[in-house]
């Protein structure tokens, strides 16, 4: 996307009155209605909004307004809103709902949505919700909660559509017409053998477009993939994305069909993974726009603390060259350039590597090629910027040797930056750690230390 | 996800022989077969792989191996592989395919996949592919290419399933059973009025589970949303994600149904947007693992150049205080700590803001609240780290006033970092620019300049 297009697009966004962007004026109107305690107006304003938009409204307003809105909205509050709400304010919202509203709201949800809703709540709130569910649903939810967090078992819904493998299209249609309690959304009929193991699936499109006497097993899809309940949700989401899946059966340890994962679950996980990567690269653990300043401060503090130690390490390196700096103050002026360029080049290489590891474009098959490439790129960009910065420094301070020293230091630092930028995340990944989590600090520590050491060390040798 | 779980998950990933992760050993075997010119072995090795995995193999091997593989694979090469292949090497692959193989390959694809395939190719390659298509398909593709890049018109497929609004379930089933050339995947039947305007849709699940005499208009879905051909693809993807859509009709300027967008298209756009955000935050325009070192160097160079100018600006600030530094070398030792902590705090605030703008969690409704929060967080973290770093500096150099100066400078810089971290992306967004694109450089320039100026300025006032 070039910049012109970005500009056009964003301008269009502001101008169009499209029906799927929540406008600020709507939120203002809603807040006014809440402030006036005008329930009919509030309900009228909320009526055209999708549950996801109502959740956004709740996330974007203040705590007191949130509670007032929920109370005024009363019985209109439904389960979909609850499952769209950000984790950060879910407990507040649940606490603000009357027991009857809460109980009606959760009864509407599929089992996977209830699981997603309650898994991070405190014990008493969990109990309140579980108690509101009919016996069968409660058992289903409790069983889902028995699977490890972030597993396919937590992600799947138990509501599914299956039939014996010998059925025909006609059997399937007759079954579906008789069936009560079908899932809200389903995209395949899963075929199972007598041991309840899923063996194939048919798309609803193929079933609908085939004559009644066709056997289902003759119109199955190649895309069929089965997941184990214990599978990591991240792996499931990767497979959905890679193979363009819409839904997939989940089996227990014995291979029996116990649930189904649908594309919306996978998209949610992909989105969360992405958020995690982008925030972790910046040293932020988690973040909700509804967090208070104190919550936010505590979430930012750990990586600032790590950064403080690495900054002190860099200061210790510099202090080794105090005598040199006292003699040549120009070094103090120029040294941040060496460190900053190295940090930037390292961050570029690092971000590319972290992203490529996440999308599995960087694997053992091409790791060595990519390492060599990044080292070469660092070296080449080092040469390019060294010549510019070296010349400028020479002209600035009228001292050719100073230009030579900073140029050499920059080539060294950008070369090391490229290497560290790819080797650090690769190593963390190989060690089973998230490469996004600690790479940034490692890499900028390396480029700071190498940058200051190379520049001041060379200066001490050449200029003193 | 806490760290233990990450470790478990990643370890499991390395150990499991799951059927949806491409293993390095497979790539090695494939390369051997290519090297030996062993076509039957190559075909046998590729047979179990999904087109997306074959595309990954091609992306991860070197240029010469890639060409050799494509040539040896010969007629087995199909259209799905072509549409899974990364843009960066698409032209290489197409050039390596024989005209007959290429022509067979593109004939299998849906119109949106052909559009996606050829929109970035050179004129002669575009021509070659268009010529291979049957007349009707070629017209469809050429029409799609007449819509602006990154629009719904480019994203949609023309193959769709529609019926008149007065149809019953039985009419729909009879039509589908007779229909030839149904799309590979479809999830809804779109109902149109006599002017061919889409008015509603039914899920296939509802059609299948309803008796034949039920009117389709009585079983339509609330989720129905219509997009205009000129809509930005990013907006479409946002709506798919926000409202959990599976497919949606696209209309031309006259409101007539011209195509349909499905969830896989939207997921691809979301993925591209993610990649763009994360890479732009690091100052990398685009990146493919298959890029050469020279391509990569040119893609990294622009932001390094910008960073060079901002680093020189910081150096100019420092140079104003040469006399002070010459007198107190400790300042040169400590000053990177002030800048580094500010840069880090600014990047944290910035990344959170950029992400929240992308997910529309940060809007005009809560912008002011978030700005105040970030300023407060910066100030509080400033106080916390100022006291630690101030005390350490005092002890290190045995000079209480020096500790006081660095503490003050840090409070100022982290406060400014928090403010800049959120105000810069908000302003860029308001101006219609991508907040991810330039924010990082702006913010670190601010924190460098403010950090050096505050620290060295205060030192000059207090310590000299």
Protein model, in words:
2 copies of one chain form a homodimer. Chain A is mainly alpha-helical and 464 residues long. Chain A has 3 domains: 123 residues, MgtE N-terminal domain-like (MgtE N-terminal fold); 120 residues, CBS-domain; 171 residues, SLC41 divalent cation transporters, integral membrane domain (Tetracycline Repressor, domain 2, Orthogonal Bundle). Chain A has 22 helices and 6 strands. Chain A has a 3-stranded mixed beta sheet with strand order 1-2-3. In chain A, a hairpin with a 5-residue loop joins strand 5 and strand 6. The two termini of chain A are 51 Å apart. The N terminus of chain A is likely disordered. At the A-B interface, helix 1, helix 2, helix 4, helix 13 and helix 14 of A face helix 1, helix 2, helix 4, helix 13 and helix 14 of B.
Search tags:
homodimer, 464 residues, mainly alpha, MgtE N-terminal fold, CBS-domain, Tetracycline Repressor, domain 2, 3 domains, three-stranded mixed beta sheet, 22 helices, 6% strand, disordered N terminus
What is the fourth-level CATH superfamily of the largest domain in chain A?
A: SLC41 divalent cation transporters, integral membrane domain
* Largest interface: chains, residues each: A-B, 154 and 153 residues
- Low-confidence segments of chain A, given as residue ranges, are 1-20
The overall number of domains of chain A is: 3
C-alpha end-to-end distance of chain A: 51 Å
Question: What's the topology here?
Answer:
Two copies of one chain form a homodimer.
Chain A: H1 3-15, H2 24-36, H3 39-46, H4 51-60, H5 63-73, H6 79-84, H7 87-96, H8 99-107, H9 111-118, H10 123-132, H11 135-145, H12 152-155, E1 162-164, H13 169-178, E2 188-192, E3 198-203, H14 204-208, E4 227-228, H15 233-243, E5 247-251, E6 257-262, H16 263-281, H17 293-319, H18 322-327, H19 330-358, H20 367-397, H21 400-430, H22 435-463
Parallel strand pairs in A: 1-2, 4-5
Antiparallel strand pairs in A: 2-3, 5-6
Helix pairs in contact in A: 2-3, 2-5, 8-10, 9-11, 15-16, 16-22, 17-22, 19-20, 19-21, 19-22, 20-21, 21-22
């Amino acid at each position: 996307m070039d910049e012109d297009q970005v500009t056009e697009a964003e301008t269009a966004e502001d101008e169009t009155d499209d029906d799927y962007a929540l406008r600020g004026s709507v939120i203002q109107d809603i807040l006014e209605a809440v402030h006036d305690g005008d329930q009919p107006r509030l309900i009228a304003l909320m009526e055209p909004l999708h549950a996801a938009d109502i959740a956004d409204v709740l996330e974007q307003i203040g705590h007191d307004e949130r509670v007032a809105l929920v109370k005024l909205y009363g019985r209109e509050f439904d389960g979909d809103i609850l499952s769209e709400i950000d984790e950060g304010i879910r407990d507040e919202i649940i606490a603000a709902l009357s027991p009857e509203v809460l109980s009606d709201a959760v009864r509407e949800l599929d089992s996977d949505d209830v699981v997603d809703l309650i898994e991070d709540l405190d014990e008493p709130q969990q109990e309140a919700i579980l108690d509101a569910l009919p016996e069968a649903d409660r058992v289903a939810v409790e069983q889902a909660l028995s699977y490890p967090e972030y597993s396919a078992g937590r992600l799947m819904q138990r509501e599914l559509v299956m039939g014996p493998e010998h059925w025909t299209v006609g059997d399937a249609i007759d079954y579906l017409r008789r069936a009560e309690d079908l899932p809200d959304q389903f995209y395949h009929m899963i075929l199972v053998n007598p041991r309840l193991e899923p063996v194939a699936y048919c798309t609803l499109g193929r079933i609908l477009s085939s004559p009644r006497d066709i056997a289902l097993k003759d119109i199955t899809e190649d895309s069929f993939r089965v997941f184990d309940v214990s599978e990591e949700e991240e792996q499931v989401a990767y497979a959905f994305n890679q193979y363009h899946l819409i839904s997939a059966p989940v089996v227990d340890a014995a291979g029996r069909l116990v649930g189904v994962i649908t594309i919306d679950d996978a998209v949610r996980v992909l989105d969360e993974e992405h958020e995690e990567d982008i925030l972790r690269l910046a040293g932020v653990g988690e973040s909700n726009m509804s967090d208070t300043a104190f919550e936010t401060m505590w979430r930012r503090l750990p990586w600032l603390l790590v950064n403080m130690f690495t900054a002190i390490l860099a200061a210790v390196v510099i202090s080794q060259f105090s005598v040199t700096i006292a003699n040549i103050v120009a070094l103090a002026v120029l040294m941040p350039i060496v460190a900053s360029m190295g940090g930037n080049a390292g961050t570029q290489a690092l971000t590319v590597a972290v992203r490529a590891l996440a999308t599995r474009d960087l694997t053992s098959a091409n790791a060595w090629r990519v390492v060599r490439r990044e080292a070469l790129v660092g070296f080449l960009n080092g040469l390019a910027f060294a010549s510019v910065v070296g010349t400028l420094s020479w002209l600035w301070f009228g001292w050719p040797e100073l230009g030579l020293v900073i140029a050499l230091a920059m080539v060294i630092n950008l070369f090391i930056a490229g290497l560290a930028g790819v080797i650090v995340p690769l190593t963390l990944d190989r060690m089973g750690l998230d490469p996004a989590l600690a790479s940034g600090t490692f890499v900028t520590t390396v480029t700071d230390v190498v940058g200051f050491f190379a520049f001041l060390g060379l200066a001490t040798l050449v200029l003193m």
